[in-house]
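## retry 2 of 3
previous attempt timed out at serialization; input unchanged, resubmitting
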Amino acid sequence: MLLDKFCGYINDLFSVQTIKDYSNNGLQVEGRGDISRVAFSVDASMDGFEKAAAVGADIIIVHHGLFWGQPLMISGYHRRRVQFLLDNEISLYALHLPLDYHKTLGNNTAIAESAGYRVCDETLYSNGDYAGCIAEHEKGFLIEDIVDNLKISLSVSPLKLFPDDYNNDLIKRIGVVTGSGMRYGIDAARMNAELFITGESSHAWYHPIVETGIPCLLYGHYISETLGLKRLLKKIKKDLKLEGVFIDTPSGM
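## retry succeeded, writing output
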């Protein structure tokens, strides 16, 4: 498949050009013109690039790319990354907030559905901007059941659950913001969510969340943003008949 056609498919699927983001989403580094194997990884890193080259990938789709809105000097580790991609003719495509926000393939939706919930039409907003999703289940789950449900997809337990004295009632409504989303727990509580699920912790937001009273599950930035790419991998293999591989480069954070 031609690189231009492939990028057009992803651009259209995720409405990349219409979503405001500080990431430079889209094709960040251009490699060879034909694509037969696609790699997926959360972060643009030498570890991921070397593994992509080892499996013969023509392009790697990442959630966290190399370029973030401002000029970046091609020096140091950044030069080595760009040089490796060019030397191996591997293209790099970044898909940040468009991947978080997608209604069926997105990171937020994937976490909510893996927890056992159905994503609502109602959206989790903060200061007028989309932040994540609200999801519901008619009967609800206990927190320990939600943790068990998520372990099937994430293969890990949460890094932290707080506060320690949460009410262990059936939870029918949750809020989800993957990655660095702890601050949005306040907005989830405002929208009557009974549990908030996010990625990495933030000391600054610990006490406000505790005082708001909403229990919070933290899975780490990396782990919380793996499911969207895995869903996209399956869709690309089905729709475009391309080979695909997920490259795991966990940070533990």
